[in-house]
Amino acid sequence: MIKVKDVCKQKLQPIIEEHGYELVDVTYQKEASGMNLVFTIDNENGVTIDDCEKVHKIIDPILDELNPTDDKPYILSVSSPGIDRPLKTERDFKHNLGNEIEITLFQKVDGKKKFVGELINFNDSEVTIKNNDGEINFNREKIAHIVPVIKF
């Protein structure tokens, strides 16, 4: 069975990219207000409320025609990923090479679930950071969450 978010991503990613935005993520989940279909977009210059509104107006009629939820009601939202967005795409990782990141694992390794260090390498199967303990490789399947470390 094809999931709502997968259909949306497959059909709408090229359209969103044609308008100069990157589709970072699509989520379809139940919240207090009902089912929410959320498109998270980005752009090299950042994303404003006007950008979110523009993309919303572009994809809304296409979603009506596509009908990914089989007529089940949902709330459509378009948002920016924020400054502390999780690293998910290759672009995210490239943009953060040399920067400090925090990795949270699903299960503890050497008694720890969180590791902080400079992102020095990544590929489809591994992420490598460097910290006071040296270089540490993590299998991407064992990583729950990766975020940039924000310092003010």
Explained architecture:
This protein has helices spanning 4-18, 49-66, 90-96, and strands at residues 22-31, 34-42, 75-79, 100-109, 112-122, 126-131, 134-139, 143-148. With 152 residues, it is of the alpha+beta class. The protein has a 5-stranded antiparallel beta sheet with strand order 7-6-5-4-8, with no helix packed on it. Strands 1-2-3 form a 3-stranded mixed beta sheet. The termini are far apart. The relative contact order is 0.14. The mean pLDDT is 93.
Brief overview:
With 152 residues, this protein is of the alpha+beta class. It is 26% helix and 41% strand.
Radius of gyration (Å): 18 Å
What percentage of residues falls in helices of 4 or more residues?
Answer: 25-40%
Element order: H for helix, E for strand: HEEHEHEEEEE
| Strand order, sheet with most strands | 7-6-5-4-8
Number of separate strands: 8
Runs in which pLDDT lies below 50 for 5 or more consecutive residues are none
SS strand fraction = 35-45%
Which word captures the global form?
elongated
Structural class: alpha+beta
Number of helices: 3
Mean of the pLDDT scores?
93
The major beta sheet can be summarized as:
5 strands, antiparallel
Distance between the termini: 45 Å
